[in-house]
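In the design runs reported in the main text, the only information available to the sequence generator was the tokenized backbone. The following block is the verbatim input for one such run; it is reproduced so that readers can re-run the procedure and compare outputs position by position.
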């Protein structure tokens, strides 16, 4: 019997690519939906994927991509239009009568969060739940290890990990483990319908723990220093859009409030894939081998220093408009996930269920 075709959205992305590659290795026909044709899409094409180039917010492109698919991985980037992409995906999935969907959600998912992306992720999850006859599984990750890897070159050059996380805790998962979980559920969706899983790393880490591990991998002492968000926003302005930066600033506050430490770590990776979750050191060693700037260099240090001076002398970016807080009738309705009694109750109750797993929305009473 032939295997069902699986659609992978953002197939050139950090989880989409390994999901698509694993499914192709297992012999599944894969349609890879990408934003643009480049060497990443060529790699997928060489492995046997059918490539569709298009926009997640164009229903014609979505219909083209989903034609013939029986299962799909929904993942959309943190940018304006997320909820529209989710709505278009839901409409076309209903038209195609998909049998199974794996949806990338968020650990912070909350209808009253200051980040519009997080509010829309909460709404998107509920849209997917309305799909008639479709087995929907939600992946609810916390803060990825990949986020720390973005500042690894700075740690390598100066021995500093400067981030705005306070004393918050996290059990960061790898992109590869996330992809293994999602690919396994897409390949064998039986028993996963309506479930929400939180894959995590195997160990709870403080920011200084993360710095110590990076130091071990880099062969030098690395110290964590809490960075003021205003200063960091200036530096990150060149790497992130204002929409992404606005969201990141809010996530950092939830990190400080220990939202990512709630009910972690989990054993989801081992239970779903049969493999132990990768520890942070393993992830960091892989990143050091591939990320430029992971070895001390005077030229790189000078480049960083000049860039920081220019950034710090510039005005702080204005990100508040990108939170769209005027959607609320009262500012008192806006609440971080860590400060929400409903959010904490729903997420802490997972500790009494199979590790990191719950039935979707069984707890939801607020909107």
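Verbatim output:
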């Amino acid at each position: 019997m032939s295997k069902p075709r699986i659609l992978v959205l953002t197939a050139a992305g950090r989880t989409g690519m390994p999901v698509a590659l694993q499914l192709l290795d297992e012999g599944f026909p894969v349609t890879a939906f990408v934003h643009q044709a480049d060497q990443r899409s060529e790699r997928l094409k060489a492995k046997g994927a059918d490539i569709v180039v298009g926009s997640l917010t164009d229903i014609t492109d979505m219909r083209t991509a989903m034609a013939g698919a029986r299962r799909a991985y929904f993942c959309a980037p943190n940018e304006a239009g997320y909820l529209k992409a989710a709505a278009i995906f839901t409409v076309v999935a209903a038209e195609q009568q998909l049998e199974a969907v794996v949806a990338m959600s968020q650990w912070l998912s909350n209808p009253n969060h200051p980040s519009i992306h997080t509010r829309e992720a909460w709404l998107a999850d509920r849209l997917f739940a309305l799909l008639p006859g479709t087995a929907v599984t939600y992946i609810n990750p916390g803060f990825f290890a990949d986020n720390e890897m973005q500042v690894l070159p700075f740690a390598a050059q100066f021995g500093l990990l400067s981030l705005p996380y306070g004393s918050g805790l996290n059990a960061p998962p790898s992109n590869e483990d996330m992809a293994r979980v999602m690919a396994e559920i897409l390949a064998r969706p039986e028993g996963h319908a309506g479930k929400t899983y939180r894959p995590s790393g195997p160990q709870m880490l403080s920011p200084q723990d993360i710095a110590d591990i990076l130091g071990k991998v880099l062969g030098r002492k690395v110290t964590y220093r809490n960075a003021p968000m205003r200063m960091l926003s200036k530096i990150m302005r060149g790497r992130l859009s204002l929409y992404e930066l606005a969201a990141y600033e809010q996530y950092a506050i939830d990190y400080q409030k220990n939202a990512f430490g709630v009910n972690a770590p989990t054993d989801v990776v081992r239970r779903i894939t049969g493999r132990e979750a990768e520890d942070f050191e393993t992830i960091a060693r892989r990143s050091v081998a591939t990320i430029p700037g992971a070895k001390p260099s005077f030229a790189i240090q000078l480049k960083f220093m000049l860039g920081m001076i220019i950034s710090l002398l510039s005005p702080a970016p204005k990100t508040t408009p990108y939170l769209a807080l005027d959607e609320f009738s009262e500012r008192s309705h806006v609440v971080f996930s860590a400060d929400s009694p409903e959010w904490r109750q729903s997420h802490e109750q997972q500790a009494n269920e199979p590790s990191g797993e719950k039935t979707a929305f069984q707890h939801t009473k607020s909107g």
